[in-house]
Design goal:
Layout (H helix, E strand, L loop, with lengths): L2 H20 L7 H7 L1 H49 L5 H5 L4 H7 L12 H21 L7 H12 L2 H10 L5 H16 L5 H12 L2 H7 L4
Helix pairs in contact: 3-6, 6-8, 7-10, 9-11
Length: 222
């Protein structure tokens, strides 16, 4: 039981005992006169209770937002990376396209294998997981604020892939209207702007966030 509830119960018990005791005293006693002013004390107590409840609500809301972001990050980023690891031997060429060149230069790796043909079902599985991750983001962002810049950076990293863009043409009808418009919008903005380094990506993200089309899309219902 929360501390506030325990304190409230103790106060209520104390008041009841006090009222019972003062009922046996004369009307001119000090305690009797004090009890007569309980309605004033009650008003202050009620105000204090409202304030305490309000602050508790704010604190719980912060915790809910943090939990939401952690769950979203797990579903939208960690899970996708786990899928990439599990399928790295089945479609290395496709997975290689999901990273920017400057990212691959930093991590010193290149998954691209010219002599290996990607297995289509693995490419389809990863593509579907990515599209669903984006749709999940749109659903969760309707009622709870989510770090927009971070997610747009992730989404742009994915949709840069020409293979993923081609799969989107096929998979597009399986998703909500909002998801279709959002992903089309991202692809269009990305393809129209230079993207040679991380600074270019930051500029593209700013273009997206400040776009009227983006704001209209985010106001749409799923």
């Amino acid at each position: 039981m929360e501390l506030f509830s325990i304190i409230s119960i103790i106060i209520i018990i104390f008041v009841i005992i006090l009222l019972i005791y003062t009922s046996t005293l004369s009307n001119n006693s000090y305690l009797s006169r004090l009890v007569e002013r309980f309605h004033i004390i009650e008003g202050y107590a009620l105000l204090a209770g409202v304030l305490i409840t309000y602050f508790q609500y704010i604190e719980k809301n912060k915790i809910i937002q943090i939990d939401t972001q952690l769950v979203s990050m797990n579903k939208g980023w960690v899970t996708i990376n786990e899928i990439l690891i599990k399928n790295s031997d089945k479609c290395p060429n496709f997975i290689d396209t999901l990273y920017f060149d400057w990212q691959k230069n930093v991590i010193k790796t290149n998954l691209n294998k010219k002599n290996i043909n990607d297995e289509w079902y693995a490419v389809n599985y990863i593509s579907s997981a990515i599209f669903q991750s984006i749709e999940d983001y749109l659903i969760e962002s309707e009622n709870k604020p989510i770090n927009i810049e971070t997610w747009l950076n992730i989404f742009l990293c994915w949709i840069k892939s020409n293979t993923l863009q081609n799969y989107w043409i096929v998979c597009k009808p399986s998703y909500s209207d909002k998801t279709q418009i959002f992903i089309d919008f991202l692809i269009n903005i990305y393809n129209k702007n230079p993207h040679n380094n991380s600074n270019d990506i930051e500029k593209i993200i700013n273009i997206i966030i400040n776009s009227k089309d983006y704001k209209k899309i985010m106001q749409m219902k799923m």
